[in-house]
Amino acid sequence: MDVTTVLGLLIGIGAVIVSFLLEGGRVSSLFQLPAVILVVFGTFGAATITASFRQLMSLPAILKVAFFDKKLNPQELIETIFNLAQKTRKTGLLSLESDLERIRDPFLKKALQLAIDGFDTNKIREILDIEISYIEERHRQGAIFFQKLGGFSPTLGIMGTVLGLIHALSSMENTSNMASAIASAFIATLWGVAMANLIYLPISDKLKAKHQEEALHLELIKEGIISLAVGENPRVIKMKLLSFLVPEKREER
Q1: Number of domains in the chain
Q2: Tens of pLDDT along 57-97?
Q3: Is 11 within a domain?
Q4: Which of 194, 211, 60 lies closest to 134, judged by CA?
Q5: What is the signed CA dihedral for 222, 228, 232, 237, rounded to 10 degrees?
Q6: 158/14 Cα distance (integer angstroms)
Q7: Phi and psi of 2, rounded to 5°?
Q8: Residues in contact with 249: Cβ distance below 8 Å, sequence separation at least 6, in sequence order
Q9: 43 contacts 156 by C-beta, under 8 angstroms
Q10: Residue 116 domain-assigned?
Q11: Distance (Å, rounded) from C-alpha 202 to C-alpha 199?
């Protein structure tokens, strides 16, 4: 579980509810079914128009990325590539076939297999760049979908408020309930703005941040395996890969 995602949602939503209670409001008044239906389902419906069926089916996997941490340890990856390079220098590339089975990272496994199969380094780079570009596109689509939800949600909230005001003003003969009806109408706007700024847009940014982490991971694998394939000194490979990291993370092992 990604603690920062869950903690951020709890703090953000909790702040809104606590502030409302301190103002003398009741939590039950926030949960009006018409406002929830219009804002949540209306927003999702609008965003669905812009997406393909395949993208919709991938939403559970996208949410899993946002709410669960994928263990990416660049130092550990660099150390793995360094050890593979040392073995290559001693016993040759073909000796790495025995290491393929214990490698769990599919991208690293594919890159290493290309090197073992004797592909030209330019061809290895080309194949891995294509793979990276498709991974980037999948991540980008997920972030954009939640960004669209964040864009549509406030507008749907305003629509809900307008509908509520129309209903309130059409019942002007019952002035005792008008103030309550007008106040209830603005709940839809609150839902629209809150969903956009506390859920949709933060998740979109979270997906972008996680993509940056994975992009670094993929780049390390690509450069490391290509360097290994051309027979560079293992120490040089390690120093080259460490240069991808910020200074405080460049700890030698």
Answers
A1: 1
A2: 888 988 888 888 777 888 999 999 999 999 998 888 888 88
A3: no
A4: 211
A5: 50
A6: 23
A7: -80, 105
A8: 74, 75
A9: yes
A10: no
A11: 6
Looking at residue 200, what is its pLDDT? 95
Domain interval for residue 49: 32-73+125-249
Query: Mapped to the 3 state alphabet, what secondary structure does the chain carry?
Result: CCHHHHHHHHHHHHHHHHHHHHCCCCHHHCCCHHHHHHHHHHHHHHHHHCCCHHHHHCHHHHHHHHHCCCCCCHHHHHHHHHHHHHHHHHHCHHHHHHHHHHCCCHHHHHHHHHHHCCCCHHHHHHHHHHHHHHHHHHHHHHHHHHHHHHHHHHHHHHHHHHHHHHHHHCCCCCHHHHHHHHHHHCHHHHHHHHHHHHHHHHHHHHHHHHHHHHHHHHHHHHHHHHHHHCCCCHHHHHHHHHCCCCHHHCCCC
Assessment of whether the complete model's pTM goes beyond 0.70: yes
Residue 251, phi then psi, degrees to nearest 5: -85, 125
How far is C-alpha 26 from the chain's CA centre?
A: 34
What residue type is 26 in one-letter code? R
Is the pLDDT reported for residue 135 higher than 80? Answer: yes
Furthest-apart CA atoms within the chain: distance in Å: 92
Tokens of 21: 């209670």
Would you say residue 95 lies in a domain? no
Residue 22 lies in a domain: no
35 has pLDDT over 60:
yes
